[in-house]
UniProtKB/TrEMBL annotation:
GO terms for biological process: homophilic cell adhesion via plasma membrane adhesion molecules. The chain crosses the membrane at residues 749-772. Residues 1-15 form the signal peptide. It comes from Dimorphilus gyrociliatus. This is Cadherin domain-containing protein.
Length: 800
């Protein structure tokens, strides 16, 4: 309905061909010159076209730009287009497509002539013959000059150089040199004339031709045609090279003066010599090409009959040929079409059809039809049709339509023409990118994936074309936004790692991947993707300490718990540590279970060894453990040495007479000894910590020769160990105290120290002697070299 209303108003606007857009330009306008705009204002949202017509086509000489500007495409030559015409108008047919509508643009361009051509004769010089017996008013035919400019600027007059013999007479067909007086060949046998043609321009342009008149002996009679005018009617399908007509002339002279030759006048030869031929002997006129009523329905030929006398005489006749039209032209179909955007509304313009038939009457009346369920053919007028859409178009389903339009005339011999019209469906951005069906949105990737490594392909498909179907990709992290962990190639959709991924720090990456086309109004599709980072055994187990030091008491039973080794591993796959003892150091003395508990494999005696070392291994990690054996008070004090001594009765009070030698293998307070004398004793006292016996009373008062001391020696352990000894001191009159009883251990130390010192002294002495001797030899060698240079090598050899 809407389409019909649109076409109705279109017919009114067109006025059935009366409406026209008029422009005017000068002859010789160069290419790319803007003639004017078909609309009052520049229009940038329309599509302008010029299309061919079946008449004289000038669409190649002009073009319509995107703003509706009419431009020349070639140099405009009015003299070629409109030879000798006063007014030169050319018709163009254009169209404007805007949205779903089409507007026909009939354009008329007037080409204003300029006087750019000089008159031109067909010959630069011409030789003519005249008999000396010729009477006044006898004339010689001369061809006219030619000027392609319009009549205003065309030839207006001719001028013959001043002389008394000939005058110039202008006729409609030729120029005539008219003899004004009698000739005398014996006096003048040749005349040289100059004929000038002058046009009507300002300034005037001229062209000239030299004419040489040769005076010959008498040739009394001119040829005479049997008919001065002939008319021939033929159909346009007249066979070419067949005799069309025949002219005949006679000459009353005898011999060569009566032999006649036929030829076209120069003007006829110039205009129609490529269409007709003339037999110079028989006078038969034939067609060189097929005649075409539509090209030229009428021809007028001027034919000369020239005798062969020394002074040739000629006669002229006219032959008119009328061509009768036949239905020999099929309809000519001219198309201006546009590409139609998909999803366009019903009734959107697709093509303008102009049909012309060069034949006349019923032979030129045309009817067209088209078979299509998607497009519809509307009649604008008798020569114009329009194709509009009838159904919505979807480029993704079908991108081109081949429409066949058939036109036929109404002649007896019906002429039919067909034309294929290819309508392309333009793409619009009506499809968002779509993801491939096999794309997974939850992916597992190993940790420590190399930077730049491909993770997955998230390419999408967009069935649209060019920018509308060109997809660009982006990714947005929804967590860990401060660390760029992934990146996506914008043109391919390949997702790659952009940073190190440590499962112990990042277990899952959530992101949104967007595919967006490059249409003017972009369409997009988004996809939420989750990357789960799979753990790898990339972390060594870590112990809670760099070194462990455990303690266990001696004499504890086998299996005694020593300590617990704690170990962790950042890897998720690490479930439980598998503790082992390295088979080195003291591994045989201990065991360790899978939970890291260390236990003893034997009973330890601290007095034999107080420290044990083991190496605990978990996977590739290890740690050293020292187990120190704690002391128990399991050793009683042991007295060393004699339990008696001799002492002078005269030993002074305060003299330390004996240091008791007692050892305790235990450590710490278990090995700390306390001495005490059990009995009341007024002569001696033992030091509680050192065990040194000191005289505290006057021994001269002792009544007995032997004094017995019951000494108790005990350690400081919780469960004390003690030793009781009976130490006897024999008093005499002369015996003095031996110092060895007090500090025998110190004397032994001094002897050892003295021995070591002696060894060091001997070593230093020997070393010093060696150094001094080497220096002495070096000095001696250098002095000998200076005194006896020739013998220095011999001395060195001897020393070696």
């Amino acid at each position: 309905m809407l389409a019909g209303i649109f076409l109705f108003f279109l017919r009114i606007c067109l006025g059935f061909g009366k409406y026209s857009i008029n422009f005017s330009i000068l002859d010789q306008t160069p290419p790319k010159t803007v003639v004017g705009y078909v609309l009052k204002s520049k229009e940038s949202k329309a599509d302008f076209r010029l299309f061919e017509t079946s008449e004289m086509d000038f669409s190649k000489n002009f073009s319509l730009g995107k703003f509706g500007e009419l431009k020349t495409e070639t140099t405009i030559d009015r003299d070629y287009i409109c030879t000798n015409k006063e007014t030169c108008l050319i018709k163009l047919e254009g169209g404007m497509v805007r949205g779903r509508s089409f507007q026909l643009l009939p354009i008329t361009v007037q080409i204003r002539d300029i006087n750019d051509n000089n008159p031109k004769f067909p010959f630069k010089s011409l030789r003519k013959y005249i008999s000396e017996s010729a009477r006044p008013e006898h004339y010689i035919s001369i061809p006219k000059a030619y000027d392609p400019d319009k009549p205003e600027f065309s030839i207006k007059s001719y001028k013959l150089n001043v002389q008394p013999i000939f005058s110039l007479r202008v006729t409609s067909n030729d120029l005539r040199l008219v003899l004004r007086t009698t000739l005398d060949r014996e006096k003048v046998s040749k005349y040289n004339l100059k004929l000038t043609a002058i046009d009507g321009g300002r300034p005037r342009k001229t062209g000239s031709m030299r004419i040489h008149i040769i005076v010959e002996d008498s040739n009394d009679n001119e040829p005479v045609f049997d008919k001065k005018f002939r008319k021939v009617v033929v159909y346009e399908d007249f066979p070419h090279r067949k005799v069309l007509a025949k002219v005949r002339a006679t000459d009353k002279d005898k011999g060569e003066n009566a032999r006649i030759t036929y030829k076209f006048t120069p003007r006829t030869e110039l205009n129609f010599g490529d269409i007709f031929s003339l037999d110079p002997i028989s006078g038969e006129i034939r067609t060189k090409v097929s005649l075409d009523y539509e090209s030229n329905p009428n021809y007028e030929l001027s034919i000369l009959a020239i005798d062969n006398g020394n002074s040739p005489k000629s006669a002229e006749t006219q032959l008119q040929i009328r061509v009768i039209d036949l239905n020999d032209n099929p309809p000519m179909i001219h198309v201006i079409k546009v590409d139609v955007a998909e999803n366009s509304e019903k009734g959107t313009f697709a093509a303008q059809i102009t049909v012309r038939d060069a034949d006349k009457g019923e032979n030129g009346r045309i009817s067209c039809q088209m078979n299509s369920s998607t497009f519809h053919l509307y009649v604008i007028n008798k020569n114009r049709y329009q194709i509009n859409t009838w159904k919505p178009l979807d480029r993704e389903i079908r991108d081109t339509y081949s429409l066949i339009i058939e036109c036929k005339d109404f002649g007896k011999n019906v002429q039919i023409s067909k034309r294929e019209i290819i309508i392309k469906v333009l793409d619009i951005n009506d499809n968002p990118p779509s993801w491939k069906k096999q794309i997974k949105t939850t992916l597992k990737i190993p940790e420590n994936l190399a930077i730049g490594e491909k993770i997955a392909d998230f390419s999408a498909f967009d069935p649209d074309l060019k920018e509308n179907g060109t997809v660009r990709y982006s990714v947005e992290q929804l967590n860990y936004k401060h660390i760029p962990l992934v990146e996506i190639e914008s043109s391919t959709g390949i997702l790659r790692s952009a940073n190190e991924m440590d499962r112990e720090k990042i277990d899952m990456i959530q992101m949104k991947i967007t595919a967006r086309d490059l249409g003017k109004i972009p369409l997009k599709a988004s996809l939420n993707v989750t990357l789960k980072i799979e753990d790898e055994d990339d972390n060594d187990p870590k112990f809670s300490k760099q070194f462990y030091n455990f303690y266990v008491y001696e004499n504890e039973p086998i299996g005694k718990f020593v300590g617990l080794i704690e170990c962790t591993d950042a890897d998720v796959s690490f479930k439980e540590a598998n503790f082992k003892l390295d088979k080195s150091l003291d591994y045989k003395s201990f065991t360790i279970d899978r939970k890291g508990s260390i236990r003893t494999k034997k009973v330890f005696d601290r007095e034999r060894r107080k420290d044990y070392n083991i190496k605990v291994v978990v996977a590739k990690s290890s740690v050293y453990v020292q187990v120190s054996i704690l002391d128990k008070n399991d050793n009683p004090p042991i007295f060393i040495g004699p339990k008696r001594m001799h002492l002078s009765r005269y030993t002074r009070i305060g003299t330390a007479v004996k240091k008791l030698k007692v050892i305790d293998a235990d450590a710490g307070k278990n090995g700390v000894l306390i001495y005490s004398i059990l009995d009341d004793n007024r002569f001696f006292w033992v030091h509680t910590e050192t065990g040194v016996i000191t005289v505290i009373g006057d021994l001269t008062e002792a009544s007995n020769q032997v004094i017995e001391l019951n000494i108790n020696i005990s350690d400081c352990g919780e469960e004390k160990q003690s030793l009781k000894i009976n130490f006897q001191i024999f008093l005499n009159e002369t015996q003095t105290l031996k110092r060895s009883n007090l500090d025998a251990p110190n004397i032994e130390f001094l002897i050892s120290a003295a021995f070591i010192f002696l060894i060091l002294f001997v070593f230093l002495l020997v070393f010093s002697v060696i150094i001094i001797r080497k220096r002495f030899k070096l000095r001696r060698g250098s002095s000998n070299s200076a005194k006896f240079p020739a013998q220095s090598s011999q001395v060195r050899e001897t020393s070696l």
